[in-house]
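Write out the 3D structure for:
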Amino acid sequence: MDRFAKHIKTIDSVADSAYAIIPSDGSDLPSATRSIYVGGAGNISVIMANDDAAVAFINVAAGSVLPIRVKQVLSTDTTATDLVALL
């Protein structure tokens, strides 16, 4: 039973779906993220959901959740591992 199934989902709601991120310089993610879980520390180079310019998040700690909406995680300059898109 899902007690929250009928609740309205907003950007501030908790994630209810996820998928593993495979960084790519040529492909957008299947769906823009709500946030990204970082399993292994490092840098993450992304293109935000409403932008076309790459931006890098440097020295992101393992176990962090970045509350960022992105459409692409670039393989170039991304050294963080075990990335999970939260939706």
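The chain has a mean pLDDT of 94.
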